[in-house]
Amino acid sequence: MRLDNYTALITGGASGIGEATVRLFAERGAQVIIADLDEARGKALETELAGKAEFYKVDVSSAAEVEAMFAMVGQKYGVLDVLYNNAAYSLSKTLWDTTEEDWDKVMRVNLKGYFLCAKYALPLLKKSSHGAIVCTGSELGVVGCVESLAYNSSKGGIIQFAKSLALELAPFGIRVNVVCPAGTETPAFVKDMSRSGNYEGEVKRLVASYPLRRLGQPIDIARAVAFLASEEASFITGTHLMVDGGYTAQ
Questions:
Q1: 152-165 pLDDT tens trace
Q2: Which residue in 55, 74, 113, 157 could disulfide with 60, CB within 3.0 to 4.6 Å?
Q3: Alpha-carbon dihedral angle through residues 132, 135, 141, 142, given to the nearest 10 degrees
Q4: How far is CA 230 from the centre of its chain?
């Protein structure tokens, strides 16, 4: 599954699932824009991939910054083939512990950010003969979970955002889909699961709930994103692909 001559922009591309996707897209022939707030990691990845990727520092919740980023993409490349909306803010709190500021930050990054990127990418995606948007949802967008109210709500919203956007953009030939990971061994995941001081125990408990009995790896998700972005998925739009080790099949 090659992505030769594709131009792809990946938000949250400096680490975790985003980094794995940047590497895979570059390996398969795409030119990649790494969009992230982490300048140190983003620049290091840009240097490592030597001409196959470039870093752009952006806060996806800022309309001005997002608009400026896509203006740069337009001036330099003229077209965008793939937008991977992946940047996210994770929060593990109950209703009574979640502040208004907590709620707003989750929604700003996880929903508003996806909206802004899609809005400002659209003129460039229209110029592609195979434009595609992929969004990172979650297993927690389709099932409930305690102590994760704001995050779960945002991920459920992403699925509905993509379904509606897929219908709006279908007349332009632009496909919109969601990839929904389960627990994936990223730096953010490790940090979150280490809060109790018993990382191995928390992982063992979580893995026991997955039929495939392992955590997801960033490359597992990256491969699903590459498929949904490619011509091999040319008749797939408005769906969410579970990459969850069978968790939601139970």
A1: 999 999 999 999 99
A2: 113
A3: 20
A4: 16
CA dihedral (93, 59, 73, 22) positive or negative: negative
- Torsion (CA) 159, 231, 26, 120 in degrees, nearest 10: -50
Contact 93, 150 (CB under 8 A): yes
- Type of residue numbered 171: P
Q: What is the C-alpha separation between 164 and 157, in angstroms, rounded?
A: 11
24 contacts 8 by C-beta, under 8 angstroms: no
pTM over 0.70: yes
Element (H, E) at 53: strand 53-57
Q: Which helix (H) or strand (E) holds 32?
A: strand 31-36
* Per-residue pLDDT tens digits for 13-28: 999 999 999 999 999 9
Tokens of residue 51, six digits? 């001409």
Using alpha carbons, list the distances in angstroms from residue 195 to 27, 77, 192, 241.
Answer: 35, 43, 6, 29
Phi-psi label, residue 170: left if phi above 0, alpha if psi -120 to 50, beta otherwise: alpha
Q: How far apart are CA 184 and CA 188, in angstroms?
A: 9
Domains along the sequence of the chain with CATH:
7-181+217-242 (3.40.50.720), 184-215 (no CATH)
Torsional sign, CA 76, 237, 162, 186? negative
Give Cα 82 to chain centroid, integer Å: 12
The residue among 59, 1, 69 whose CA lies nearest residue 30 is 1
